Amino acid sequence: MKCLALPHLCVLFGFLAVNVPGKDYPSKGYLTFDNLPMGSEEKPLVLRTFVPTIGLSASDVLPNHSTGAASPKYSARSGKEASKQTPPIHGIPAAIAVNMGKTLSYVWDTTECRLLYAWRDGFLNMKNYWGDPTSGRRRGFGYVPNLYGFVFYKAVGPHPVEINGQSLSSLGTPAYLGFTLGHDRIPTYKYKAGNSQITIKVEPGPSTQTLKLSFASTEQEKLGFKSPNTQVQVLKSSPGLLHLVIRPNAGENFLSEEKKVEIKKPTKDIGEGLYTTLGCIACHSLDGGKNHGPTLKGSYGAKREFQQAEPLVVDEDYIRESIEKPMAKTVKGYTSGMMPPYQLQKAEYDSLILFIKSVR
Ligand code: HEC
I need a labelling partner for 239 at 20 to 30 A (CA). Which of 173, 198, 314, 349 fits? Predict the structure, then answer.
């Protein structure tokens, strides 16, 4: 009926249906796949895949990964090598990427046998690696999947696990032994370091953007965990066992599939939302309680003393600087370098400032 009334539209839709291949493949019964796979807390998604390095230190964090050398591309057609050098593909092979829904994604590396990074609000865009869902086309060079979401933890320094006070980095290359899935479907990774077999399980921590790590070792030695600029809270420690919570040490937004929503007007409510989603809540209380960072209650207009700077009264500029470059000044009595720097939109800084001003 509508077609009779709107013949132009009908022609248009007919045209689209014929000329846009792929879009309706699933409805026609073809098998396709999703390039943006996601798991959930009940059913974590575990992927063995290439992952991006996102700026991790090659010498400290990835010492056992070799990087290839640039080499010319060979052409089968001409039988010659191109004069142009093609750089090696930058990515971490054979990592294990896990997604537990919106709250937590992480990468555990089977070469270094350690947690590399963790993020929220996304997972991996597999298009480079798996190809286009409808045409199957994949990138020949540069096939490392893209990460999207908000990275709140990045590995720094040598291997954080210590056996009797010694970092695993000093015990030679660890050997990955595989993973098992518990009844909760959360993977537990196993590896050999020195004479010990160590297992580790990674789970969401008690508050947003925190991680719970549970280690166990066959040798009943004293296990430790040390990582520069990372706040660690030990939950349980006994011979051959260590459970702990680590707090955010990074704050970087990666390209999102949905285009990032530009905030037009800063508001206190947006600031309050960011306080939770960006993980400030993990270190700053709103009720005057002392946490890893100063409480935000009554901070605006209060006097501050610093470890290596002149005292000042908390104003908007100081709050903005504290979020963007926390290393610039360190409040007396707190640890320098613990708060991650946040790269945000201007309106996001302004919203956080409005919110902090309102916490009286
Ligand atoms: C891992 C813990 C941690 C996280 C996460 C964190 N901070 Fe901090 N923050 C600190 C510490 C520690 C200090 C004090 C040391 C310093 O000045 O760097 C601090 C200082 C500050 C200050 C100065 C406070 C004052 O009263 O002088 C502000 C403002 C601030 N943070 C805001 C934020 C905001 C906003 C976020 C989230 C976007 C955030 N912080 C996330 C640990 C954290």
Answer: 173
Q: Which two tokens stand for residue 75?
A: 């052409």
Q: Kindly give the number of the ligand 1 atom that is closest to the alpha carbon of 152.
A: 5
8 Å CB contact between 213 and 243: yes
Decide if pLDDT at 189 tops 70: yes
Q: Specify the residue with its C-alpha closest to ligand 1, atom 38.
A: 280
Residue whose CA is closest, atom 20 of ligand 1?
Answer: 293
Residue 218, CA distances (Å) to 37, 170, 176, 222, 350 in order? 35, 19, 15, 11, 51
Cα atoms found within 13 Å of the Cα of residue 64, Cβ hemisphere only: 20
| pLDDT tens, position by position, 315-332 | 999 999 999 999 999 999
154 CA distance to ligand 1 middle (Å): 18
* Count of C-beta atoms within a 10 Å radius of residue 246: 23
Average pLDDT value for the chain: 88
Please report how many Cα atoms fall inside a 13 Å half-sphere around the Cα of residue 153, on the Cβ side: 32
